[in-house]
Amino acid sequence: MGVMMNIQLTINGVEKTIACQPYETLMRVLRREGYFSVRFGSDTGETGAAAVLLDGALVNSDVMLAVQADGHRIETVEGMSKGTQLHPIQDAFVRTGAIQSGYSTPAMVLATRALLEKNPNPREADARDALSGILDRETGYVKPVLAVLEAAAVLRGEEPTEITPNVLTPISLPDRDLFNADQGEGGDDFHTGTGSPTDLRTRRLPKFILTPDIPQTNVVGKPEVKVDALKLAKGNPAFVDDIELRGMLHAALLTSPHAHAHILDIDDSAARAMPGVHAVLHYKNVPRVRYASGGQSYPNPKPYDQVSFDSKVRHVGDRVAAVAADTPEIAQAALAAIRVTYEVLPAVFDENEAMQPGAPIIHDEPDMEGAYDASRNISHHIHAQVGNVEAGFTQADHVFEQRFYVHQVQQVPIEPHICIGYWDADERLVLRSSTQVPFHARRMVAPLLGLPVKRIRVIKPRIGGGFGAKQEMLIEDIVGHLVIATGRPVKLELTRAQEFMSSRTRHPQTIVYKTGVNKDGKLVSQKMYVMGNTGPYATHGLTVQTVTGLRGLSSYNCPNKLFECDVVYTNIPVPGAYRGYGAPQALFALESHMEDIANVLGIEMIEFKRMNWVKVGDPLDIAPHLGEGEAEITSVPVIRSSGLEQCVLQGMQAIGWYRRDDPNWRLDPTRPHIRRGLGFAMCMHGTAIPGLDMGGASIKINDDGSFNLLVGATDLGTGSDTVLAQIAAEVLGVGVSDIIVYSSDTDMTPFDTGAYASSTTYISGTAVKKAAEQVREQIKERARLMLKLDESSDVVLRDHHAVAADGRAVSLAAIALHSLHQQDQRQIMATASYVSSESPPPFAAQFAEIEVDIETGQVTVKKLVMAVDCGIAINPITASGQIEGGMTQALGYGHCEEMAYDADGRMVNPALGPYKIYRADEMPEMDVILVQTHEPSGPFGAKAVAEIPKDGVAPALRSAIFHATGVTINHIPFTPERVWKALQASQGA
Amino acid sequence: MISAYHRPETIEQALALLARRHVKTAALVGFDAVLGPDVEEVVDLQALHLNQLSIEAGSAVIGTGIHLQSLLEDTRLPAWLRAIIKAEASSTFRNMYTLYSVIQAASPESSLLAALLVCDAQVAVVSVSGRQSLTLATYLAQPATGILSAVHLHIDGRGADARLGRTPADSPIVAAVGRRGDDGRLRLALCGVAATPLLVEPEAIADLQPSGDFRGSAEYRREMAAVLSQRVMNALA
Asked: From the CB of residue B166, how many other CB atoms can be counted at a distance below 10 Å?
């Protein structure tokens, strides 16, 4: 320990003398002083979540010592607003929909402030540069850039922009032939940034195609401001780490340096003897209870191949021990004092090699149960068939077979996994956790801790992104064990490196497609074989691979289909749920395969796909054979809505598809090494897991006619709290501001399976709608009583009133007071839940424009366009934000992100720079078009939107690379050397 | 773990603190403090005001304590050099990094270091034994003990760069930077092909022995060094 120092800081205009240790970061000291808007994202400054203004300049306080700031002026967002009156910059972020989880919003607001103080009239490029130090996994930077430009305009004295989508005209093919020249939008001034600021503000708004089926609504379908925007814009203490508990201990995790090893012994005596160390846990002192960690419905799919701490480690980053200590420094010192004796074993990382005879057996423990064939490292084998594929291949005019490989990436939520546990006054264990699945986590952690479910409460505050990584009971058991062992509050937060290696990732897969097709282009038979690499633990292994099969064999009609899959244990860090959940892998292979077939057959690619893709009325006949988990689909789902044709037409126009055959466009005479290309992929996803996903909602009226909406659904930053509030408000005839949303807390809210599988709007939204309809009936009943109407009298709710047919009205506030205080008192409230037997697919058309440097292999993505049919968009701003953010993650998947390893299975790039997350200043232009259809089974016609943006970018990039160069590459990501080698091989051939 | 922090007000005090042999001490110039785990004490040089900047007649003397953002905003520096400064780091890190921290880090991927090399950078090093001037290339190969106080650059003529990365703002896998001074001589430097950026003669590129990693194999880096160098030479022809 060092000598405490007193430093002088002027924070938000207030001079303070603060005592700190010389090793403490500025972020840590500011948070200790109560400035919770300064947030942890990494210990390298790469996320920018901890950015503050130091003498007016944006700096990362997580890589700066507090003592370095001595004598300087610090500004945080806490100093920017008074009460509920936001600063114009904060207001711009709220109005433009630039806030999703809000975790990094304070940093972005400060970046904007720093920019505008120097440059009140920024160009788009200036805004992007200002935001370049703050990574965002949620918005694709589209709306934050818009917010910067909007704030600049308002501060210059201009009128605020009305943030509403641009309504486009539907396109019909006979009128417009997009294959011909002089049609479409094509390129613009995005990369030069020469447009006027006002133009840019307008151009960045989402586009919208109305459907005649759209219901007349007042709140649904409107770009309402997020219900949690105020607290997020102000940087209020809303996240897991933003509470202070007396005597809280700091936990730290010791992880394996070996990919596969027996732990022969652990000597923790030195660690336990250290002053300030309160617990050291490992396999010797924690009960061995087997479980599966994937956050899924009861009963979790087998095998149960994990225990809290094992005597064997199976990947670099696997758990070895955990400590709880007075300070983070003591915890780290204690980890260093633990002596672990390993017997290092041979390891296997490739799914193909892992199944071969002689491969190391990863689960050889005697109590292993439930795996398909642990001796061959196969956790599951999946088989599903429709028709007879072999007969189909015999009948087909052509048979094509191709192999694809998709790699491992990480979700990278800017807020890492974090959990704080403590005993409450009733001696119940409270776990305040950044989780997508609070109810699953409570049920799953209970047997591991030896506590009944009723003694555990899981609270999900705001979450700084999840993307599936937090659809897991990942660290709650460790925190629970440490709370039980110490009797003290305990906090555990993963480091960024641990988030990569000890959290969850996307499954790598080897995918083999074999397709029979007739001369006319009709598919006859299609077989998909998948080897899914699930790392050493199966968690979501069965269900992710099942979705791969479902998505890979549902998008196109074909009478004969076969899905075969081996889910394989290896020694890589553990794959699990990641937004898209098996579909991005499938769609890369499927769309690439279909395009290559079209090219061989000489049929225009989109036409070939259009000929075969599923349309309204078509059955998804493989679905009943690929039920997810324990769910069984007994009937064949049928497509009831699809806007795919319009999506394709709109996307073609937006990308300037006519340029595809223009040789003058494809070459750049000033840069002879550049080739330009346009690519396409169609996407079809699902909406919730039929028969399995369940959401609950409870609504009660307050004295003033406002409503509490309690939902188990988990807003990860997606805006689901807002969407659910809009649904309730629509039914109850009030505004969104009259709906107070609380989500989710296992003690306080109804059950919900959680935020995954694109289910919240569809499932939880329907539950909210049902609950609101019941409350509406109770309100009507009370209004009839107050207005002395008979039971059959019609009453409608609008504008905060119950209005009778004769025009008389009574306010909801009066109804609430009457009901709660005056006559036949009762609480107007209702609870409803919903589970669906259907999973209506959203559809989308993804387009990409790229440049390939044929001398280096460097691919530069210039523009992405996604036209999405998500049914009726309950909130077009949050929906478009989901698409922009999802496309950006998908861009990383296809283009640059990868987990790279050395020969011993150690990740060599566990930091965000080397891993490579796209920054604001290097993003391609992005265009989002919402093509609305009315899905009859969804609330107000809605389908899902959260995951489909992940599906199409990788195959669209491959398509564009092929268009630009004539080279096909079956392995992502399209990094420069991979493309260069393909170009070299092509030239050699 | 850091147990003590010093902010000396004179360079003599700083040198005395840094010269202690029994304490593992690191200098901080700039606001980034990502330090090795064995550092025991830090000496923050911000009070020494190493931020002089003079530009005249095709040359510049830049204090090593100036933040990159300040250099970026100084329009007296040539546009090609400012573009490389901008590409060196994101907005937050440009407010934290100084020339001192860039030189001390000696990253093989720093195109700014390559740019300094082609500007015939001379670094001024102050130590207890006096003041010396070294070429940046010499300093990178064998860092001298003492405090880097300033960098002298030649910025006459024209400059150009060509870079290769996974994305437009990626740290370069390979980059080439060149300057043709008013004397007509071409200076060429590469990054991504050795332990630090280095000056090269065009005919020696084929003899480079880069290390490979997941972003680019040794063979690929060597090939790209030739491609990008040629582009820079073409631009400066």
From this structure: 25
Closest to A901 measured CA to CA, from A552, A462, A508, A538: A508
Name the amino acid, one letter, at B144: A
What CA–CA distance (Å, rounded) separates B99 from B90?
15
A171-to-A175, A606, A651, A863, A935 alpha-carbon distances in Å: 8, 16, 11, 21, 20
Provide the shortest C-alpha distance from residue B42 to chain A (in Å).
9
Of A140, A151, A136, A175, nearest to A39 by C-alpha is A136
For residue B43 the two structure tokens come to 């000496």
Residues from chain B contacting residue A973 (CB–CB below 8 Å): 166
Question: Torsion-angle region of residue A971: left (phi > 0), alpha (psi -120 to 50) or beta?
Answer: beta
Q: What are phi and psi of A459, to 5 degrees?
A: -115, 130
Pair A503, A474: CB distance under 8 Å = yes
Q: Which two tokens stand for residue B40?
A: 């025991």
- Chain A's closest residue to B172, CA to CA, is A914
Note whether A828 and A775 are within 8 A (CB). Answer: yes
| β partners of residue A294 | A472
pLDDT in tens, B159-217: 999 999 999 999 999 999 999 999 999 999 999 999 999 999 999 999 999 999 999 99
Position A751 pLDDT exceeds 50: yes
Residues 6+ away with beta carbon under 8 Å from B86: A129, B72, B94
pLDDT in tens, A787-829: 999 999 999 999 999 999 999 999 999 999 999 999 999 999 9
Q: Cα distance from B69 to chain A (closest Cα, Å)?
A: 9
Contacts of A971 in chain B (CB under 8 A): none
Q: In chain B, what residues touch A192 (CB-CB under 8 Å)?
A: none
Q: Say which residue, B105 or A634, is predicted with more confidence.
A: B105
Locate B17 and state its tokens: 């603190």
Test mutation, A860, A975, A979, A987, chain B, max B CBs within 10 A: A975
**Whole-angstrom distance, CA of residue A728 vs CA of residue A739:** 7
- B:17-36 residues touching chain A, CB 8 A cutoff: 28, 31-34
Q: Is the bond preceding residue A624 a cis peptide, omega within 30 degrees?
A: no
- Look up tokens 């052509």; give the residue: A398
pLDDT value of residue A971: 98
Contact criterion met (CB < 8 Å) for B92 and A48: yes
Sign of the four-CA dihedral A953, A959, A964, A965: positive
Whether omega before A447 lies within 30 degrees of 0, making that bond cis, reads: no
Domains, in order of start, for chain B: 4-47 (no CATH), 50-154 (3.30.465.10), 158-235 (3.30.390.50)
Model pTM? 0.96
- Cβ distance B168 to A860 less than 8 Å, yes or no, reads yes
Quote the pLDDT of residue A188.
Answer: 46
Q: Which helix (H) or strand (E) holds A868?
A: strand A859-869
B167 touches chain A (CB under 8 A): yes
**What's the token pair of residue B19?**
């010269």
CA dist A494 to A42, A255, A268, A499, A629, Å?
9, 11, 21, 6, 29
CB contacts of B95 in chain A (<8 Å) are: 54, 57-59
User: For the range A817-824, what are the long-range contacts, defined as Cβ-Cβ under 8 Å and sequence gap of 24 or more?
Assistant: A817/A703, A818/A782, A818/A785, A818/A786, A819/A701, A819/A782, A820/A701, A820/A703, A821/A703, A823/A785, A824/A785
- Report ipTM (2 d.p.): 0.97
On the CB side of B18, CA atoms within 13 Å amount to: 22
Average pLDDT over residues A83-109: 96
Residue A416, C-beta contacts closer than 8 angstroms, at least 6 positions apart: A40, A41, A493, A494, A495, A496, A498, A499, A503
**The two three-digit tokens of residue B214, written as one number:** 């997941």
Average pLDDT, chain A: 94
